[in-house]
Amino acid sequence: MGFSANKFAALAVAGVVLGAAAGQASAQSYPSRNVTAIIPFAAGNANDVTARIVFEQLQKELGQPIVIESKPGAGGTLGVGQAARATPDGYTILFHSATFSASYVTHKSLPYDTLNDFTAVSAVSISPSVLVASPKKGYKTAAELIAAAKAKPGELNFASAGIGAASHLSAEKFQLAANIKAQHIPFRGPVDALAEVMAGRIDFYFLPLAAAIGHIRSGNVTPLAVSSDKRAPQLPEVPTTAEIGYPAAAYAFWNGVFVPVKTPPDIVARLYQATQKAIADPGVKDKLDKVGAQPLVMSQPDFQKYFVADVKATEELAKKAGIEKQ
Q: In the prediction, which pLDDT does 21 show?
């Protein structure tokens, strides 16, 4: 027996109502258990420190514990791959950074689709890259470093935490803007790179302010410039790359929360709202400030656009700098 048009319409309306009610119920009940947060970096890394500061408050906003799972390896791609394969129910979230964009342009093969496997939920923080050198080098300003690089083309060197790492891309962007060329020395990670810089065996290094601030305050490295449009509140005496004449050298290191792409919109909205409340907390702001980061506030759709634009901009930078996929 077939349905009449009126009966079909009534059922359609009922389905819409039930669907909306189910979505509202899932948003209201989420989360009802622990949430796993994958961080594709080693414990103690600047990204890991930032994540733990924010997640300590985020779990209070969500009303459920957040279990942090550090998953370093393969430039962070192992952890991202694991997050991409997770059930899209909001119980597995990914905390990532500008390195997410870098991996897209430096890896020939990835165990996930950067632009199609994830939804960008919420921006968390932003930290400028800071140009540092060992006090042993004697550089007092970025201008002195640039002059030395131009006097001896290709003889100076710079460190990175690996080919395609944010520290590599930031330095390449600076070189393009300042029209200099130094030898790239990639290391297995930021700890090794920073150790060589402090020892004076490396001429300069760009790294996120969050990772550099402690060593700057202790005098282990000398800050020469921050790669941003405005000075970092934590280093008010250090000029920006724009101020010294190279506005195109700006390179910001951002962090944010992602989920698998098919996560229900109502859960994405719940996570977004909770994350925004967490980064607005005065205690969180204070802790972020101490590690050289600031809350990054924008809407969820705007963060999605920001992420896509960053991937495209990083791809263009890699082409200009001649960085080949590994």
A: 41
- Token couple for 222: 């000398």
- DSSP, res 234: T
Look at residues 120, 110, 158, 127 and name the one whose alpha carbon lies nearest to residue 45: 127
Tally of CA atoms within 13 A in the half-sphere of 127 that contains its CB: 31
Q: Tokens standing for 294?
A: 């600031």
Whole-model pTM? 0.86
Q: What average pLDDT does the chain have? A: 90
- φ, ψ for residue 234 (rounded to 5)? -75, -20
Cβ-in-10-Å burial (0-12, 13-18, 19+) of 116 comes to exposed
Neighbours of 196 (CB within 10 A): 16
Mean pLDDT, range 51-67, rounded to an integer: 98
CA–CA separation, 75 and 45 (whole Å): 13
Q: What percent of the chain has pLDDT over 70?
A: 92
